[in-house]
Design brief:
Elements lengths: L1 E5 L7 H8 L3 E4 L13 E6 L2 E6 L2 E2 L11 E2 L4 H14 L6 H12 L6 H16 L4 E4 H4 L8 H12 L3 E5 L8 H5 L4 E7 L21 H7 L2 H8 L2 E3 L1
Parallel strand pairs: 1-2, 1-8, 2-7, 8-9
Antiparallel strand pairs: 3-4, 5-6, 9-10
Length: 238
């Protein structure tokens, strides 16, 4: 069984979904500290031929708080502005706008009040849309007994609880985790890497230079489910 464990991100980039697509069970790591300058509540879209940063407004963000304790600021006008920005960015040029915009709107307007919950909503909605059948679990709900363990130790404990013999991590984890620590516990640790990003190229509109690494929102706006499915397979394990 293959498992991946990652912090929740709001409509993350396609590499996040390549990771989800590579495993049997994907665990939303929501009971760890909120990362400074991370991607939990923000990402880039394409606006006026440039990448544009959008941010879900939250209350009292702090690195001393767990991600699942961060509340969304639903009274903040910036929340509604995101939808208006998406409409301005994609309504006139993105072929799949009429399908994708309602999906994003439903997530943003959901009753969820934490950023971890909203991120999970976004991830689950994309997986459903793309036909990714990986099982999604949440660390605070499914593995609360492991919260006091260290990074590698906690991941090993979760894998053993699930009976998993393979843990797949994002490529950034190569600097954080030692494969030997996992091998000693009978777990093979691999890292998913975009194989050739040029193969993920897609048209973002007439006379628009391609801008990579944007939110999955951008990918879905310009590509069919079948085209995105091919992109999801365009990765390798290291």
């Amino acid at each position: 069984m293959k498992v991946a464990i990652m912090q929740p991100y709001f409509f993350p980039y396609i590499g996040y979904f390549q990771l989800i697509n590579s495993v049997d069970i994907f665990i939303i790591y929501d009971d760890v500290h909120f990362p400074k300058k991370g991607w939990v509540n923000r990402n880039y879209i394409l606006l006026n031929n440039n990448k544009h940063l959008f941010t879900i407004p939250c209350k009292s963000i702090s690195q001393n708080k767990l991600i699942n304790a961060i509340q969304i600021d639903k009274e903040n006008k910036a929340l509604k502005t995101i939808l208006k920005t998406l409409e301005a960015a994609y309504s006139k040029k993105a072929p799949y706008y009429e399908i994708v915009f309602p999906m994003v709107k439903n997530v943003i307007n959901s009753d969820v009040d934490t950023i971890s919950g909203l991120a999970l909503e976004s991830i689950a909605s994309v997986c459903s849309y793309l036909g990714i059948n990986t099982k999604l679990l949440v660390s605070s709900e499914n593995f609360p007994e492991t919260i006091d363990l260290g990074g590698s130790e906690r991941m090993i404990s979760i894998c053993k609880t699930l009976g998993a013999n393979e843990l797949i991590n994002a490529i950034g984890g190569m600097d954080l985790y030692d494969k030997n620590d996992f091998i000693k516990q009978g777990i093979n640790l691999s890292f998913v890497n975009i194989k050739h990003f040029e193969n993920l190229y897609y048209s973002q509109g007439e006379n628009q230079p391609f801008i990579p690494y944007l939110s999955i929102i951008d990918v879905m706006m310009f590509n069919s489910v079948q085209e995105i499915g091919k992109m999801l397979e365009n990765c390798e394990l290291l």
